[in-house]
């Protein structure tokens, strides 16, 4: 029997594994952490509160959200609201964590069936090798096995031609066919940082002063209609990707996000030292997310 505390230990190890690969792939992560230490905003990397992490998947039988979510549901995450991105042809859900100090999780999937026949054909050529849901045969209590699973190819390496054809129709499809389950982003919670850095406006000013490039689709700061969730993100870091046949090409990898969650109106009377996560705006916002996806799109990375 696996107790819930053993499950949380496994979750800790899985999250550590995701973050260490992510730090290597995205130099902006350490760049931002170093800048925060340099300005005495934090003393060490662990002082950063991770608001949420995000993954992308292909919506095909045996994969997609229904497969991927089993991993984190096993560790006690709870499935929350769905989101629908019509133009980008994506579905998404967010998941609330088993304990408040863990990151929320945002998982999206491409509605492959809504793409052109040509794009569907390319995607199925790769994903058809996945006949059974691979998560079903994974021992979710074995942190090393899960870590390996999240960083192993589930389908053959794409050719550059296929990547570029997909890119023309769906930038998201091209991203997933190459980057797979690599962490798409982690998110720095800015509201608990020290004054001068604890609003998204001040934090993005600091980032730009330090030379980090921000996604400006829909404006640099994305604000939910209720005014409670304010988000910004860097432009994805570029990778020298090696494709099948040894061809190489510079493509978008992952990025970093920043979130300010304001205190809900009903808790605004509480003294500041009593404010906890549950007193702030929770969840996500489709209008913000729609623009944040574009952090990996050539419209942003090509600037
Ligand atoms: C996710 C974009 C949405 C958010 O916080 O709303 C998002 C992605 O780029 O895969 O991260
Ligand atoms: Ni996000």
TrEMBL record:
EC number: 1.13.11.93
Superkingdom to which the source organism belongs: Bacteria
Record keywords: Dioxygenase, Iron, Oxidoreductase
SMART domains cross-referenced by the UniProt entry: DUF1338 (SM01150)
Matching CDD domains: VOC_like
Cofactor section: Fe(2+)
Enzyme's top EC category: oxidoreductase
Similarity annotation: Belongs to the 2-oxoadipate dioxygenase/decarboxylase family.
Protein's name in the database: 2-oxoadipate dioxygenase/decarboxylase
Originating species: Larkinella bovis
The organism's taxonomic lineage, starting at the top: Bacteria, Pseudomonadati, Bacteroidota, Cytophagia, Cytophagales
């Amino acid at each position: 029997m696996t107790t819930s505390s053993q499950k949380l230990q496994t979750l800790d190890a899985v999250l550590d594994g995701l973050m260490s690969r992510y730090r290597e792939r995205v130099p902006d992560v350490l760049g931002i952490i170093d800048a925060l230490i340099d300005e005495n905003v934090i003393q060490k990397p662990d002082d950063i509160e991770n608001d949420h992490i995000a993954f992308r998947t292909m919506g095909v039988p045996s994969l997609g959200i229904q497969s991927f979510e089993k991993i984190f549901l096993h560790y006690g995450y709870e499935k929350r609201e769905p989101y629908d991105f019509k133009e980008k042809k994506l579905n998404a859900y967010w998941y609330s964590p088993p304990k408040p100090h863990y990151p929320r999780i945002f998982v999206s999937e491409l509605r492959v069936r809504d793409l052109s026949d040509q794009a569907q054909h390319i995607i199925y050529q790769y994903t058809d090798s996945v006949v059974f849901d691979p998560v079903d045969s994974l021992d979710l209590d074995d942190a090393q096995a899960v870590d390996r699973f999240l960083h192993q190819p589930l389908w053959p390496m794409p050719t550059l031609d296929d990547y570029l054809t997909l890119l023309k129709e769906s930038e998201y499809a091209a991203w997933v066919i190459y980057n797979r389950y690599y962490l798409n982003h982690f998110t720095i919670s800015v509201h608990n940082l020290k004054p001068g850095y604890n609003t998204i406006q001040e934090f993005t000013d600091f980032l730009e002063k330090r030379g980090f490039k921000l996604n400006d689709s829909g404006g640099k700061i994305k604000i939910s209609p209720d005014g409670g969730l304010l988000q910004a993100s860097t432009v994805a870091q570029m990778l020298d990707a090696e494709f099948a046949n040894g061809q190489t090409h510079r493509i978008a990898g992952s990025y970093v996000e920043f979130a300010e969650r304001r205190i809900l109106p009903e808790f605004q009377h509480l003294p500041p030292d009593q404010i906890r996560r549950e007193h702030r705006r929770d969840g996500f916002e489709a209008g913000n997310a729609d623009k944040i996806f574009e952090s990996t799109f050539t419209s942003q990375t090509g600037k």
